[in-house]
Amino acid sequence: MYPDLEKLFSDLSKIIPLRALGSQLHGDENSIFQLEKSGEYYFLMPCPFIANSGRAAPPLLDGSFMYAILASFPQQVMVGPGRTNENYRSVQRVRGHVSITLGADALYAGELVFSDRKLVSWNHVSGHFLPSVEQRHTQLTPNVKRLLPEHLFVDPIAAMHRRRQQLMQEVMNDEW
Fold first, then answer.
1. CA–CA distance, 83 with 90 (Å, rounded to integer)
2. Higher per-residue confidence, 54 vs 1
3. Domain that holds residue 122
4. 45: part of which helix (H) or strand (E)?
5. DSSP element (H, E) containing 171
6. How far is CA 25 from the centre of its chain?
7. H-assigned helices in 2-141
8. CA-CA distance, 110 to 169, in Å (whole number)?
9. Phi-psi group of 88: left, alpha or beta (phi > 0 → left; psi -120 to 50 → alpha; rest → beta)
10. What's the CA gap between 163 and 148, in Å, rounded?
11. Is 10's pLDDT higher than 90?
12. What is the pLDDT of residue 41?
């Protein structure tokens, strides 16, 4: 399964926990779930290490979710419906990434977008953990890379700069 075991161990040795910058109220444990995947479809599972593990997880509905990978559970992607996800009641939404980690350190954090139970995109946008674009190559374990495929990663800052350059080029072309 791992043709280059030495590279895998080298990559895993570069993982560094990220401390949250600033504070945030811890989330409601009933709003935090574990992300899982079967084929191309995703679903939510109860989080096995918090109090809600005995409760049934809600269905995965379209929209944005916040995610965090806890340093203490590097193989799991913990998620909660984002503040703008209108498909969940406001009491079901998380406040932010520190809400998902319950104040603990993370390895990576950002946003996910789902449509029809399929992952559309994911990013590294987290104001509290501030992971870099490059850290996704070293901070994510093989299981997390299975859940968050590289080809669906979107860097919103780079996309914004590309769009700005495109618009400037269009303006230049129109003026000449």
1. 7
2. 54
3. 5-175
4. strand 41-46
5. helix 156-175
6. 19
7. 5-13, 97-101, 136-139
8. 31
9. beta
10. 25
11. no
12. 97
Contact criterion met (CB below 8 Å) for 115 and 61: no
Residues 6+ apart with CB under 8 A from 113: 63, 64, 65, 119, 120, 121, 122
Instruction: Specify the pLDDT at position 81.
Output: 92
Strand runs labelled E in 123-162 = none
Give the whole-angstrom CA distance, residue 80 versus residue 57.
Answer: 11
Token pair belonging to 13? 């040795």
Q: How many structural domains does the chain have?
A: 1
Taking each continuous run of H as one helix and of E as one strand, the counts in the chain are: 5, 6
Beta strands in 51-117 (DSSP E): 63-70, 78-81, 106-115
**Predicted pLDDT of residue 56:** 79
- pLDDT of the residue at 39: 95
Average pLDDT for 48-68: 83
Contact in structure between 102 and 121 (CB atoms under 8 Å): no
Counting Cα atoms < 13 Å in the Cβ hemisphere of 66 gives: 27
Question: Which structure tokens are listed for 53?
Answer: 């593990």
pLDDT value of residue 26: 60
Smallest CA-to-CA distance from 43 within 57, 58, 60 is with 60
Q: How far is CA 26 from CA 31, 94, 104, 110, 165, in A?
A: 11, 9, 10, 17, 40
